[in-house]
Amino acid sequence: MNNTTLKQIAQTLGCSISTVSRALKHHPDISIKTREKIIELANTLDYEPNAFAVHLRTRNSKVIGLMVPTLSNYFYETFIASVEEESRKNGYALMILQSANDPVIESDNLKLFRQNRVMGLFACISAHTHHLDGFTKMIEQKIPVIFFDNVPNELSLNKVCLADEHAAELAANAIIQSKRKNIVALFGDPGLSITQKRMGKLNAILNQNKESIKLTIVHAVNSAEAERAISKNLSTKNKADLIFCMSDELLIGAMKAIQIKQFSIPDQIAVIAISNGFVPKLYYPEITYIETSGYKLGKLAFTHLMACLAGSTAIQELTVESILVKGGSI
Amino acid sequence: MNNTTLKQIAQTLGCSISTVSRALKHHPDISIKTREKIIELANTLDYEPNAFAVHLRTRNSKVIGLMVPTLSNYFYETFIASVEEESRKNGYALMILQSANDPVIESDNLKLFRQNRVMGLFACISAHTHHLDGFTKMIEQKIPVIFFDNVPNELSLNKVCLADEHAAELAANAIIQSKRKNIVALFGDPGLSITQKRMGKLNAILNQNKESIKLTIVHAVNSAEAERAISKNLSTKNKADLIFCMSDELLIGAMKAIQIKQFSIPDQIAVIAISNGFVPKLYYPEITYIETSGYKLGKLAFTHLMACLAGSTAIQELTVESILVKGGSI
DNA sequence: TTTAATAACGCAATCGTTTGCGAAAACATT
DNA sequence: AATGTTTTCGCAAACGATTGCGTTATTAAA
Fold first, then answer.
1. Are the Cβ atoms of A56 and B59 closer than 8 angstroms?
2. Would you tell me which of A14, A65, A238, A326 could form a disulfide with A113, CB atoms 3.0–4.6 Å apart?
3. Where are the beta strands (DSSP E) in chain B?
4. Which bases of strand D sit closer than 7 A to a protein CB?
5. What angle is formed at CA B91 by the lines to CA B87 and CA B97, rounded to 5 degrees?
6. pLDDT tens digit string along B252-306?
7. A238 Cβ partners below 8 Å, 6+ apart?
């Protein structure tokens, strides 16, 4: 690798390492003359500080960890893209690991994060994570952990979430406005916090509605299951006239079933989803959806982490508001 | 942070740091008795080696860099997911940066990679990268760079690519078999190596075809442009009867136009694309596509990098084969 | 009993920086 | 001229691990 070091610069210039170090960061103790000499040589030699040495000495790794169940997911990608952008701007490096929804891999990953002395961590826990030992251990070691999207139920943790209840509320209102009465609502894994929150709110609002709405709740953990469920429903005589999907993945499955049955949207069946915005725009008419921006969530999460690193100890649960994006599907 | 160190273990046990260090890695010089004592204490103290200290001393960072134009892209996602998987299995950490297709950010990123002493780099260059100085500097410093997907034209670089020509050939053959005669082919930025390769081959095969195929080539750099182009074409009286898209992004635009015009697939118009496989399966009928697996490409790239790190100096340009995945769109 | 061999461990240098503190040199003040 | 200030720099100790080599015990061989 043959990287130039402070020592080399010092030797060729006949001064001390500390002088070189200080000169390169414009320390007032160093005279302008020597400073310029040093900087010039450093430039021609392509000097790059060895991050490991710096971090070892300063105990400031400038590395942030990020863990998601999987990287192949449009929502996480936008979240990560957003966080990466901010990290780079602020001089942090991102270390990204995926848990594959496996608690074992998850805790292995936490060990890797600790070994690499990350200064903070963004974590979206897997659907099957029940004990948070690894996470709490980090928090005890003063490494702030910002949970995002699917977060633990435990109190007194830093969380940034989509405004799940609010999103469900927007969806519910749109459903009520549509006057449709036979609703099928697709939800994901019942163990997920986002499932619980979204389902609870939607259920509450639609059930308290004076007019008689028939709400059927179906759980599906992937597109295929969603497709099967909707396909089955659409074959019955008492079929739904509106389908709600709590996520893009379920929307994909539902749309597949609808397309195969050749039902026209929104005449024969209306569709509304909670989504990141990519999938709904693929169809025509575009699907009406409640936007849940991974991008905004990423910005929020980063700001929150920076605050923690700056010393803020207030535990907070923050949310980004949702908005209704009208398509033509309802 | 309060992390336990070798020194702390050594002091509480009354032995030397080197003994602790050796015991923890089962060095034969250390007796079994002391070794076990040390390992036990290390476990109860949650000892984790400080990666920075280790890397500084061993000059082996165990960090791999990865740069893509953007993270919000299904193809890159699968590539990254694949590389991350292998990295983790092999004890490497991944440092991921996006260039936003901006050569300036690109070279800033390279500096970050150098500062963090990455041992190797996966890079998909931006569409506007013309001088490779930063990259060649790394290569000179014995840091292997594996270019992937959109790669420089320069020879003697390590590259892993989709079998672009082969993919185009498969598409061309499928087009010929379809008997359609009025083809519109959508291609991306003419500056991209993948555009050139795919276009060249498709053009060559279709033009040498004895039967008279009318091939219209259109460049579009995003979905919106693709939609506009196809929409315009479908409004003419001499409209296309088959549309080829070289990427998912263009496919999305084309499909939007087709859906809006309410043309039925494949009766009124056939569609075929080169794709990673996610988007084509959203529609019904599913779009026939030539699969370009980011996942496989990632595996190949990783293997290639490992070979380079192991000392292989052979410059290679590797490709992953494509396959035709039949949908109902042609 | 002496010598040689081996097992088990510690010393100390090293990786490349950062930084508190002291020292010499230059300058300013009486 | 003597003293006090500043400016400008170097020394040396960290940060936490690795490792060649030397040093003791311990055991085996002669």
1. no
2. A65
3. 63-68, 93-98, 120-123, 145-148, 158-162, 182-187, 214-219, 242-245, 270-275, 288-291, 317-320, 323-325
4. 7-12, 14-21
5. 45
6. 999 999 999 999 999 999 999 999 999 999 999 999 999 999 999 999 999 999 9
7. A182
On whether any CB of chain A is under 8 Å from the CB of B56, the answer is yes
- Please check whether strand D approaches the CB of A31 to within 7 Å: yes
The residues of chain A scoring below 50 in pLDDT are: none
Amino acid letter at A66? L
Residues 6+ positions from B55 with CB-CB distance below 8 Å: A52, B61, B62, B63, B117
Q: What is the pLDDT of residue A209?
A: 72
pLDDT of residue A73: 87
Is any atom of nucleic acid chain D found less than 7 Å from the CB of residue B24?
Answer: yes
Shortest CA to C1' contact from A7: nucleotide: C16
- Look up the pTM and report it: 0.90
CA distance B57 to A53: 9
> B37 falls in which pLDDT band (50, 70, 90)?
very high
- Cβ A16 to strand D below 7 Å: yes
Give the pLDDT score at A3.
Answer: 85
Tell me the backbone φ, ψ of residue A142, rounded to 5 degrees: 65, 25
* Cα distance between residue A305 and residue A245, in whole Å: 31
Q: Which residues in chain B have Cβ-Cβ distances shorter than 8 Å to A71?
A: 77, 80-81, 84
pLDDT band at B1 (very low <50, low <70, confident <90, very high): low
Contact B141 A112 (CB under 8 A): no
Q: How far is CA B204 from CA A129, B44, B173, B200, B219, in A?
A: 54, 68, 12, 6, 17
Look up residue A1 and give its two tokens: 């690798």
- Closest listed residue to residue B99, CA positions, set B84, B88, B112: B112
Nearest residue to A158 (alpha-carbon basis) of A320, A315, A319: A315
Tokens representing B130 are: 């013309």
Distance separating alpha carbons of residues B120 and A311, to the nearest angstrom: 35
